[in-house]
Amino acid sequence: MDAKAGARERFKQSERALIDLSHRIHAHPELGFEEERAAAWMCETMADAGFSVERGVCGMPTAFAARAGSGPLHIAICAEYDCLPGIGHACGHNIIATMGAGAAIAAAKVADEVGLTITLLGTPAEEVCNGGGKILMLERGGFQGVHAAMMVHPAPIDMSTPQIIAAAMFEVHYTGKEAHASAFPELGINAADAITVAQTAIGLLRQHIRDTDRIHGIVINGGAAPNIIPAHTAVRYFARSKSLERLNDLLPRVHRCFEAGAIATGCQYEITSGDKPYAEMRHDYEIAAIYRRNAEALGRVFADPEPSVVAQGGSSRAMGAGSTDMGNVSLHLPSIHPLIGINSAPAVNHQPEFTAACATPDADRAVVDGALAMAWSAIEIAADQALRRRLIGNA
Description:
The protein is α/β, with parallel strands linked by helices. The protein has 2 domains: 3-164 and 281-394, Aminopeptidase (3-Layer(aba) Sandwich); 166-273, 2-Layer Sandwich (Alpha-Beta Plaits). The chain is 42% helix and 17% strand. A 6-stranded mixed sheet has the order 1-2-4-3-5-11. The chain has a 4-stranded antiparallel sheet with strand order 8-9-7-10. Strands 6-12 form a two-stranded parallel ribbon. The protein is elongated and about 80 Å long.
């Protein structure tokens, strides 16, 4: 029996339990850094599969590392399992987690035979969008000794090298002065007006930014009551651009819009957070091509060009432009982040309808296909001597 067949046989033994786990995580959504049940269930699954499991790694209670094999080539598979506020697993992290677990379990069956060390890294809080789990794990040595990293993300369609851009999430807090809104409005300093001025300025700024830039946000505190001049208001905003370098150009322009709100109204203001932005994804096109071939062998059909075409400057933009802390990982070591379709259209990520689509037969098929495609890719990478030397030499 060859290595890929052995991996598939091992996966089949865990398939039903992994699909059940996907549904269980989906039914019990937990916010970033609060994924206590999901992390515990994942650790139990990996321990039962014979992995050495370390919980609470890198100073995060819901992070973990599950390891098997002792080969010289060390591949990490990243698992995410946090949800979005209000709409649960509308980005399919229940699928990401169980795909990752399945890939690691399948590859571990033949890890020593092909020369692999496999680590499933439980990476919390991808959806927090500032200082996500992978960024903290990078800073604290969680990826030390890893030669390549991979994960697969659910979406309406399959893509091998999706466009993933840099993003900073920050908050702006305005402080004015209360007053009776009808009897003594002249005594107030309206912190809600500061938001209005800032959002108007941002609307005007959008004419003068790149078409790959994004600015969007919400009001998280609009005041206490309509008959009180608001003295304390706050917004939470994103700025995104094609790369961290371009994001550093955009952010000061966005910040000045919020400064304008303070100047116009006489409020004080403070910008917080945004200090640990998400980086653009630097796909390893050679590894992405290997993943694509293995996924196609399982019947997957891709919507973007071959990775070699994208690497030569061809467009990979067939869907959206999201952001993830996997981008930060990709700037440190060779990484891939393909998308796997769950037949959700017209529903797309971050919609309640997508949440519902993440616990369906098509989502279950994605768990199977994504896990096997990653496991087979790890095996194929280990067998490619030139690629293996490149990865180990880059560490």
